[in-house]
Amino acid sequence: MNLEDINLAEMLAFKPETGQLFLGEDRMLVFRQDSLAVLRRQLHEQVGPQLTRSILARFGYQCGHGDFQTLERSYDWGTEEDRFGAGPAMHNWEGIVHVEPTFLEFDREAGRFQMIGIWRNSYEAENHLREFGESEEPVCHSLTGYASGWCSAFFGRAIVAIETKCMGCGAERCEFEIRLRSEWDERARPWIEALEHTEYSLTRELQAKMELVEEQASAISELSTPIMEIWDSVLVMPIIGTLDERRSSAIVETLLQRIVTSQSRCVVIDVTGVESVDTETADSLIKVVRAAALLGTRCVLTGLSPSMAQTLSRLGASMQEVRTLRDLKAGLKDCLRYLRG
């Protein structure tokens, strides 16, 4: 088959009775350009520009690599130039972009490959301009991905296409250059990284960020709930901020561990800095007092607000098991009297 014989209209097998379209043995699809523009915007908004670039580049790479393999199985090419030129011709026929090669040189034995060319009417550049306006960086990610995939499949070695000019950046036309990956300099790094992000996962990124947030929350919690041994056998734990159920559980666990390691006989829990407390968290305070008592440690609550006092009262907390005092100073005095007695 010669390059001039390529006619996608004849190569495609339309099967409306089954809702399928085939190129050789591979199913093909036809989508609206504006629907791909919506997809591009959604990707940008949901996963950010970096991952969007990688997704589109990998998508394009698979398209190019797959098109080459399909045509290779289906046709016998007259020359190597015809075999290679089928890629640009496919883009022209598919309505993706018009490809105009301006320089092409390849030598399999010598391991050389270079192509320079022009892209006109890039659907990607048009979509990006419509959705976002002009960009500071080239935007034809699926086109460079396709070229990289097609050329790599053709040459049997890793090849990377980059965009040297882009209509999405305000240029009159898009221009590209393709070389062996090993022959590229730093200019190709963004395109290489986009193709290599197969191990990149938004889920893993979110998981890592969640773990970081949890670590930071834990550190903040420790800072906002310090436990200090201010006298022999006397611990003071001031609580600052909102006291929710999760934080209450962490406080209980941390305090009981400290009581065991320090063998303290008294603990002053000062809640002057607590913004609000609900019934469940107030119940947690009572439980920590009871748990400390089981370890032989006396707890004193200081700095209760009127609303917190009402909450404790509604729980039916006995004043015999929950000793409350006005402020931290009074609590410390009470503990020292208890130890001396």
Automatic annotation (TrEMBL):
Phylogenetic placement of the source organism: Bacteria, Pseudomonadati, Myxococcota, Polyangia, Nannocystales
GN (gene name): rsbRA_3
TM annotation in the entry: none
Protein name, UniProt field: RsbT co-antagonist protein RsbRA
Start and end residues of each STAS domain: 224-339
Keywords, comma-separated and alphabetical: Phosphoprotein
A Pfam family of this chain: STAS
